Amino acid sequence: MKEWLVYRQSLQGQTIGLVPTMGALHRGHAALVERCRKENDLVVVTIFVNPSQFNDPKDLSRYPRTLEQDLAILEQLGTDHVLVPSAEEMYPEGYRFRLKEDGISNIMEGLHRPGFFEGVMTVVLKLLNLARADKAYFGEKDYQQLQVITDMVSEFFIPTEIIPCKTEREESGLALSSRNALLSDAGRNKAAAIHRVLMESPDIAAARLTLEELGFQVDYIEEHWGRRFAAVFLEGIRLIDNISLKDIHHAAVS
Ligand code: PAF
Predict the structure, then answer these.
(1) Beta-sheet strands, E only, within 166-216
(2) Which residues contact 201 (CB under 8 A, 6 or more apart)?
(3) How many other CB atoms are there within 10 angstroms of residue 193's CB atom?
(4) Atom of ligand 1 nearest to the CA of 139
(5) Average pLDDT, the chain
(6) Which are the contacts of 53, defined by CB distance < 8 A and separation ≥ 6?
(7) Residue 252: pLDDT over 80
(8) How far does CA 210 lie from the centroid of its chain?
(9) Which atom in ligand 1 lies closest to the alpha carbon of residue 124?
């Protein structure tokens, strides 16, 4: 990271776009990088499986890691710089310093995964400071994360614009996620029901019931900010998704 910081000093007069990732890249990440490529002179991608945002050590250890493949994808996409810091470089003082939010991070992902948003905000603050990018790109699949980060950047006067990007989906409707790789083929087919049920259910109680009947273990289904959110377990893998309530109404009238 030291070399990068020295090099970063030398970059003047070029716009920089950042795509922070935890690797195991898929088409969803590619869409972020492609947009970043269009909107900036230089594209920086970080790959760091951030231990501080995992409350379950099993989840951390089985998180897919595909570095060589990721680097090949990023080269094809025309990425200028890929930063792959180690945990020691990111947390030289261990977890001595951390950021806490006391509002919207207390619901959904924050409530069900204690420490998750502390870990995310702390690492994203570090990554934003490392890259000092003009723009940083985040997917709407992690909508609550996107909200927390957008508010954090505003609150701390961080001069990076946070760019929200639409969720990329498989044809079946399944939201693209690195965790999908951990599902069996049958699980992947079944997981397509999450999006369908969110879109088709008249309310969250009905959505919960249908998902449970289909064999999902529901962590939560809630509505906030004009959106419907779900977190479910399938084959022991935790999957999240969300949709805009406007899209339900469109689907109902068309
Ligand atoms: O969304 C992710 O992949 C991670 O939460 C992020 C933003 C890269 C921070 O580790």
Answers:
(1) none
(2) 207, 210
(3) 20
(4) 1
(5) 97
(6) 115, 116, 117, 118, 119, 120, 123
(7) no
(8) 26
(9) 9
Buried b (16+ CB within 10 A) or exposed e, 209-222: ebbeeeebebbbbe
- pLDDT, one tens digit per residue, over 137-188 is 999 999 999 999 999 999 999 999 999 999 999 999 999 999 999 999 999 9
Instruction: List active site positions.
Output: 29
**pLDDT at residue 92 is higher than 90:** yes
Find the helix or strand (DSSP H, E) in which 5 lies: helix 2-10
Q: What is the DSSP string of 67-111?
A: HHHHHHHHHHTT-SEEE---HHHH-TTTTSS-----SGGGSHHHH
pLDDT of 249 strictly over 70:
no
Q: What's the one-letter identity of residue 181? A: A
Please give the pLDDT value at position 81. Answer: 98
The helix (run of H) or strand (run of E) holding residue 245 is helix 245-253
| 22 CA distance to ligand 1 middle (Å) | 6
Unique residue bearing structure tokens 């970080």: 46
Q: What pLDDT score was predicted for residue 254?
A: 62
